[in-house]
Amino acid sequence: MDFEDTELYRDITDAAHDTPTWVQHTVEIWTEAGILLFAALFAAAWWRARRGAPHAFAIAALAPLATAMAYLCSEVLKSGFAEERPCRAVTDAAPSLAVCPPPGDWSFPSNHATIAGAAAVTLALVRRTALWLTAPLALLMASSRVFVGVHYPHDVAAGLALGAAVAFAVVRLCSSPAARLAEAMRAPTAPAAARWFTGPGSPRAHTASYGLRR
Fold first, then answer.
1. Phi and psi dihedrals of 98, rounded to 5?
2. The whole model's pTM is what?
3. Distance CA 153, CA 5 (A)
C-alpha cells in the first residue's frame, strides 16, 4: 500500500531531530503517557456520572468499552494491510526517536491514534465541552507517533478517523440498553456492589424513576 506520504514522513522526522533534546524526550514520554491520561479522564467521567441520569452514566461507562472496541478493529485492519513500519521501510530517513517496533507489528492504522480518536469522541459524548480538551490531546498523541518515527502520517490520520467512527457507533447503539441496565442497577433491591458502581444518580432522576411509580 502506498499513500505517497514518505517525503512528509522524512520531513517530520528530520524536523524532530532538529528540536531540543528536552522536546524530544517530552514527546517520547507523551506518546505513551497520553493513554494513561485518557484512562484517568475515563475514570473521572465515570465518577462524575455516578450522580447523573442513567443515560449520562451509560455513556460514561461505555466510553472505555467503545475505545477498546475501536482498538480491536484497528488490530484486525493491521493484520489485513500488513504495512511495514516506516522506521524500517523508509530509506535515508532520520533514525526514529522511539524504538522501532519488531517485524510483524504492522504500521497501518496506528493503534495509539485509534485509541486517541475514540477516547476524544466518547469523552465529548459524556460532556460536550470536553471536546475542547480531548480533541487537542488526541491530535497531539497521534502526531507524536510520526514525530518519534514509528508511523506514517496516513497511519495516524486513519487511526483517528477509525477510532472516532467506531466509538461513536458503539455508544449510539448501546447507550439506550446500557441506560436501562444502569437504572436497574440503581434500584434499592440491586446488589450493593452494583449500586456503588452506578452511583445514586441525581435526585431528580431518582424521583422520576421510582417516586412517580408509587
1. -95, 160
2. 0.87
3. 7
